[in-house]
Each structure stands twice: as C-alpha cells, then as structure tokens.
Amino acid sequence: MGAPPDVLAPPPPPSRGLISRVVPPSVLGRRRALLLIERDLMVYRRQWMIVISGLFEPLFYLLSIGVGIGKLVGNVHGGGESVSYEAFVAPALMASSAMNGAIYESTMNVFFKLKYAKVYEAVLATPVSVADVALGEVGYALLRGAAYAVVFLFVMVAMGLVASWWAVFAVPAAILIGFAFAGTGLAATSFMKSWQDFDLVQLAILPLFLFSATFYPLSTYPPGIRLLVRVTPLYQGVALLRSLTLGHVGPATLGHVAYLAVMGAVGPRIATRRLGRLLQP
C-alpha cells in the first residue's frame, strides 16, 4: 500500500509577514549591520577616552578663537544680520566636530581592522555580508559623530550661542554631515595601502576646516575662490548648521541637505564594491 497522502505531500511553505512580502530580502538583511555596530560598541567601551578625545579640539577652538578673538572682532555679518563672532563660529565648529568624528572612525580605525586585525575576514564567515559591513561601519561612525554634535550643542546652549528654535534640528543635521563624511571616508579607506596614505586625509581635512567659511564669512573671499568654497562638502555642513542655529532657514537649506544626502549615499556604495573585491576576491 502507498504512503498516506499527508506523508508524500511536501511541507507547506513558512508563513511570511506583510513586510517580508513587500520588502526585498536584501533590504531586510541589512539589519545584520546592527551586529557590527554592537561589536564596535563592545570593543570601545574600555577605550572610551580615545573616542571622546576627538571632541576637545573643536571645543578648544571655540573657547580660544571664538571667545578670545571674538572679543576683538565684535560682531560679524552672517545670514543677513549682525551676530556675535562666537555665535557665527560655533555652528561651524559643530559641523567640523561631526566631520572629525565620522571621518576618523571610518578611515584609521577601519583601516586597522581591515589590514591588520583582519576583523572582516572573521565577520564574513558569518551570515553578515560585505554590504552589512559597510553599513555597520558607517552606522558606528554616525554614532560617534552624533555624540560629538550633542555635546557641542549643549555647550552652545550653555554659552547662549543659539538664537533660534530651529536649532532642535541641529543634531539631525550634524548626523547628516557625519553620514556624508563617513561614507566618503570608508570609500577612501578601501583604496589605501599603508598608514602613509593617511597624510592625504589630513591634506584634505585641514583645508576644508580652514576654508569652509568656518572663521569668517563667505563674502570675504574673492569671487573665484568663493565659488570653489561653495561646492566643498564641509561648507555645506557649516552653512546648514549656521542657518539652523541662527534661524535663517530657506530654500538654500534644502540644497545643503540634498548635497550631503547624495554624498552620503554614494560613499557606502563605492565602499561596498571595493570591500567586496578586497575581502572576497
């Protein structure tokens, strides 16, 4: 006699939720990137001083140049009105703080894990993919940049350097700045061969910091240099945070957001392809 029909019949397919029916599995799989963020948080919990040390440099600039030189400079013309020099410089330094936190985490630390610690070879032995690695490292860099931005905003509020309620969006804006630089830094790291290559990172970061209308208005530049400054990524972040903390929000603000969002979206895509070639040749 043949086997009962219920034995011969294949098992019914597992039930799928509405989200899994609509969203592609590749998108749902990106949640594994959270595991890499968790791993980074566990590693750095005993090295917290390394993480917070990056916050001090822009704070020192604010206290020395913003407050010290600000007493000599007085008010400057920013966003259509005269504001104190400290209020003009502070959002720019906040943008620099978010940039520093994201770029250093996505370059030097990722390079060490990639070339020396061989962390990603072990990670890829699990169901975590190369895309998860890229998103996880960008996500952790965002956490570091966001932490810097929150602390810096508290300092600005305590010093009375916030002039508008639009400043509540300053932290999300700083995270967007970190997103742009984290993705770009991760992509750049995938091309680096040795520690000497990080001199190029400094060669890029220092001019951005000094010449992104950080310490003086854009109008002080000659017309040709002014156009060049306008297209640099840190200037977009500086102008975005300055418009929020001073309350000069307009159509140009959306342009800064779009610029940084596109920059942040392109970086991880390049990094994913490059890391795939390096880790899965």
Structural class by secondary-structure content: mainly alpha
Strands, count: 2
Q: Which strand order does the major sheet show?
A: 1-2
Oligomer: single chain
CA-CA gap between termini: 54 Å
**Number of H/I helices:** 13
Mean pLDDT figure = 82
How much helicity do the residues have?
A: over 70%
What is the radius of gyration computed over CA atoms, rounded to a whole number of angstroms? 23 Å
User: How is the main sheet built?
Assistant: 2 strands, antiparallel
Number of domains: 1
**Could you tell me the strand content as a percent range?**
under 5%
List the helices and strands and how they pair.
Layout: H1 5-8, H2 18-22, H3 25-28, H4 33-44, H5 48-73, E1 75-78, E2 81-84, H6 85-115, H7 119-123, H8 130-158, H9 170-189, H10 198-210, H11 223-230, H12 233-246, H13 251-279
Helix pairs in contact: 4-8, 5-6, 5-8, 6-8, 6-9, 6-12, 8-9, 8-13, 9-12, 9-13, 12-13
Can you put this structure into words, describing what you see?
The protein is mostly helical. It has one domain (29-279). It is 71% helix and 3% strand. The protein has 13 helices and 2 strands; from the N terminus they run H-H-H-H-H-E-E-H-H-H-H-H-H-H-H. The chain has helices at residues 5-8, 18-22, 25-28, 33-44, 48-73, 85-115, 119-123, 130-158, 170-189, 198-210, 223-230, 233-246, 251-279; strands at residues 75-78, 81-84. Strand 1 (75-78) and strand 2 form a beta hairpin. Helix 5 (48-73) packs antiparallel against helix 6 (85-115) and helix 5 packs across helix 8 (130-158). It is elongated. The N and C termini lie far apart (54 Å).
